[in-house]
Amino acid sequence: MTTAPAEAPTRTAGAAWGLSRIDPKYLIVFLITLVLVVGEARYSILGGYNRLATALGICVATEVFLSWFLRGRIVNISSAYITGISLALLIKPQANILWPFALGAFLAIASKYVLTYRARHLWNPSNFAIALLLLLAPASVAVLSHQWGNDLGTNLVIWAFGLVIAWRARVLHVTLTYVVCFVAFAIVRHFIVGGPLLAEVAPITGPMYQLFVFFMVTDPRTTVSTRRGRILVVGLVALVETIIRLAGDFQIAWLRPLYPSPPLLALAIVGPIAMWWDLRRVARASMVSR
Amino acid sequence: MSWRRFIVIAAFVAAIGAVLALNGRAAAGVAGRGRAGIQLHEVSHESGIDFVHQETTLDPKLANIAAHVAALGACVSVADFNNDNWPDLYFTTSRFGAANALYVNQHDGTFRDVAAAAGVAALNRPGEGVSMGAVWGDYDNDGNEDLFVYKWGYPQLLHNLGNGKFEDVTEKAGLRRWMNSNGAIWFDFDRDGLLDLYVTGYFRSDIDFWHLKTTHIMQESWDFASNGGKNLLFKNMGDGTFKDVTDSLGVGSTRWTLAAAAADFNDDGWPDLYLANDYGPEELFINHGGKRFELARAGLEDDSKSGMAVAIGDVYNRDRHDVFVTNISERGFLFQGNNLRINFLKELGRFDEVAKGVVADAGWAWGAQFGDLNNDGLLDLVVTNGFISADTGRDYWYAMSKIAGAQGNIFEDAKNWPPIGNASLSGYERPRVLLNRGRDGFVDVAEAAGITHRLDGRSVALADLFNRGALDVVIANEKGRALLYRNTLAGPENGHWVELKLIGTRSNRSAIGAEVTAEFGGVKQRQVVNGGTGFCSQNDRRLHFGLGHNRLDRVTIRWPSGAVQTVDDLATDQLHLITEPSR
User: Is 0.90 surpassed by the pTM of this model?
Assistant: First the structure.
């Protein structure tokens, strides 16, 4: 999900905590590994190690090969590692088929090299792959929904580590903005739809959202360049998600492919548009300044 | 554009094309277009069966999800209750005041409901609860099949008096205990010649669905819940009473059990218990000499799904009991997939899950049974599907997905569930008839064979209802008509057959738990006389073996008493009555 930051942010002034000396990309690698280990140990969340091996192996291999093939150098594989684990956790296929992990992994990493604008990729890799699979392969693929034990303790561990790491990686404002927007829109939906308020708030307590708010929506490589812009974009993601959710509540049939995973598909819609607009704006600004 | 970039873009596009192609193949794989080779004609009405299930009402506090909670209770069980060697049918309904039905087989292709006269009709009464299913077994070894009806409420044990009437002996038997049960089986766990009773708890037993004290009644987790009703094991004391031995035997699972089945899975001579649990992993309790049960680590504990039914069958004619457990699949939302677990307990200490394609994805699957529909010597599968068929323009899947991933304490309270209204939830799904092609897997022939209805199936039972050597199919549908499908193509051209009716002497008289291996064509197929299998159902306890175009070489019967009987040269295409040797 998160493409690990290319450059570590400058150290927090005066921070004595050892955490501040660790490159944020490795903190994110640690967090996704923690999610994997806790989820597998407590709930066998993977559904088979062959899924992890397939997704992770193909992500890393694709990253290594394409970076060498197209750019002449092999890049750091932390991004591929995060994407591979994310896909292994999020994709829930029909029966025991493996091809969604294989093709999803290839498409996720390849999208970074194919779907580019001004040498930057537009989609978060795992977000792109999962959105594509959900829309094109609904007979074969579902997304992680409830296979996480519905357990408060596990969620608290992930959220606690996630928030600290998001703070360290300087993306906490993105995470918190999304959470605040989600809850606010949940209240709005509650008044529009008329169902229980907790039913509208409930999704954010689920496992998919942990992966979404800590890895996907905060991806520094596919978020816009300014802090204000990131806050605006993540608010827009929450808004589009709410529109999808309201469409689900009002039973708009032709949008049904979007209903299994509103946040992932909202990000897949808003994210690249925002990136394209931001890259274009920055390019024009630099031309003017020259 | 450089040639390198062109190659990468081409590969990217090709990968997207591969996704489309493979998804199309997956969709086609579950579409059910196989050639039948059998014909199943729906003959319910002309056979005199006009039974319609009615759902239970519930406390108004559950109004937001009443359609979801109440969608159970359409069940069918088969037994020859009047000892005329023709199978009869018992159907349950679940509305206060509505009558269960006992259809007596009139030997001419028709049935007649005698439930009222027999005293097994008016079981759904306020204060007493509503029927959720029934199992037959001769608990007092008097030669007449007795009836245990499990309920949301007080279960009822109905003693067959042998004169066409039944007497309610629940209180006397010590079984009057409020439960919210959706399953029960008879089996002789300690092999003392007396049928014991295992009753599964679904909702907690302190819940009275018509006078709710709390709405905190739902599961605490969608995949590891253990706050369901407690399963109970009642030992038959031989004097008409039963004793609760659940805790001392270690089988009091609270994992929302929907179905149970018993058989000797590990070949140690003792019947083990296999449970299909909703919101949790399946459980196999290994029987240690009738003294205690042990929860086995057999590859089941980490594979959490929504188990609905347990069917037992020897899929590849290996003289083993394999297991089929139904689960839920819904495109885009959830692929739990049914489990077809091949028994490798002896070699590897576990089952291997091999379901794929049509076997794995049958929709929201409920009842299932193994049986050789075409007498080719391989056990086929019949699966009923569909949860709630209501407004076709409204779907509850999205609404349910809001809470499915949430913290357990949110959806454990029913009032936090989004209102279902008149929405459908995996509605209008079709049953599956999966013909076993051996190593080539299963092929779905339901539509070609003639099963085309879209009712919400719950329970399915197989029996040679017309004594022709062909397994017929009976399906009980929620809020719908019960359907009888007469199998009209399984004659000599489809292979030979043999049927065995076993009578226990030292063992329980119903011979429930007897393990029978038929040898033909170089293979061995094992079946067990069942005291309840599938979901809220019971097949005819006469065993039906299809033989293909082979002669029957040998039949080996391992009686529950421990006696082993070998019978050679049984004539094919006949029903044989076999009585357990006295010594």
Answer: yes
**Which residues of A are less than 8 Å from B24 in CB distance?**
139
> Any idea which of B72-86, B126-140, B492-506 has the lowest mean pLDDT?
B492-506
User: Could you report the per-residue pLDDT of B180-212, keeping only the tens digit for each?
Assistant: 999 999 999 999 999 999 999 999 999 999 999
Q: Give the residue-averaged pLDDT of B458-468.
A: 97
| pLDDT exceeds 50 at position B431 | yes
Q: Could you tell me which chain B residue has the CA closest to the CA of A152?
A: B407
Check CB contact under 8 Å for A151 and B221.
Answer: yes
Chosen for mutation from B333, B336, B400, B417 (greatest number of chain A CBs closer than 10 Å) is B333
Would you state the pLDDT for residue A147?
Answer: 66
The set of residues, in sequence order, having a beta carbon less than 8 Å from that of B386 and lying 6+ positions away, is: B363, B364, B366, B426, B427, B428, B429, B430, B454, B455, B456, B457
Strand, helix or coil at A230?
Answer: helix
pLDDT per position as a tens digit, B59-108: 999 999 999 999 999 999 999 999 999 999 999 999 999 999 999 999 99
Give the number of residues written for chain B. Answer: 583
Listed as ranges, residues in chain A with pLDDT below 70 are 1-21, 145-147, 149, 290
Supply A203's token pair: 């999704």
Q: What is the pLDDT of residue A122?
A: 94
pLDDT category of residue B30 using cuts at 50, 70 and 90: low
Closest residue to A92, CB basis, from B4, B20, B335: B335
Instruction: Provide the token pair at B176.
Output: 């009057």
Contact at CB, B407 and A155, closer than 8 angstroms: yes
Work out the minimum CA distance from A43 to partner chain B, whole angstroms. Answer: 7
Chain B positions touching A253 (Cβ under 8 A) are 393
For residue B357, give the chain A residue with the closest CA. Answer: A95
Compute, in degrees rounded to 10, the torsion defined by CA atoms B287, B288, B291, B297. Answer: -60
HSE toward the beta carbon, residue A283, CA cutoff 13 A: 10
Nearest CA in chain B to A263: B402
Alpha-carbon distances of B388 from B130, B210, B289, B325, B392, rounded to whole Å: 20, 21, 43, 20, 10
A136 interaction partners in chain B (CB closer than 8 Å): 16, 19-20, 23
Q: B223 vs A146: CB contact, 8 Å cut-off?
A: yes
B238 close to B231: Cβ distance less than 8 angstroms: no
For all residues of chain B together, what is the average pLDDT?
95
Among the ranges given (A57-66, A95-104, B27-36, B450-459), the one the predictor scored with the smallest mean pLDDT: B27-36
Strand-pair partners of B79: B88
Q: Is B198 helix (H, G, I), strand (E, B) or coil?
A: strand
Query: What is the rounded distance in angstroms from the CA atom of residue B93 to the CA atom of residue A127?
Result: 48
pLDDT beyond 90 at B433: yes
Q: Is B416 exposed, middle or buried (0-12, 13-18, 19+ CB in 10 A)?
A: buried
Q: What is the pLDDT of residue B33?
A: 64
Query: Is residue B393 within 8 Å of A253, Cβ to Cβ?
Result: yes
pLDDT confidence of residue A1: 52
A95–B355 C-beta distance less than 8 A: yes
Chain B residue with minimum CA distance to A254:
B393
Instruction: Point out the residue among B330, B361, B401 whose CB comes nearest to the CB of A95.
Output: B361
Please state the φ and ψ torsions of residue B164, each to the nearest 5 degrees: 90, 0
A229 in reach of chain B (CB within 8 A): no
CA distance linking residue B47 with residue B105, whole number of Å:
9
Query: Chain A, 11-30: which have a CB under 8 Å from a chain B CB?
Result: none
- The DSSP annotation for B152-192 comes to EE--EEEEE-SSS-EEE-HHHHT----EE-SEEEEE-TT-S
Amino acid at site B338: N
Pick the residue from chain B with its C-alpha nearest to A154. Answer: B407
B517 near B555, Cβ under 8 Å? yes
Per-residue pLDDT, averaged over B514-532, amounts to 97
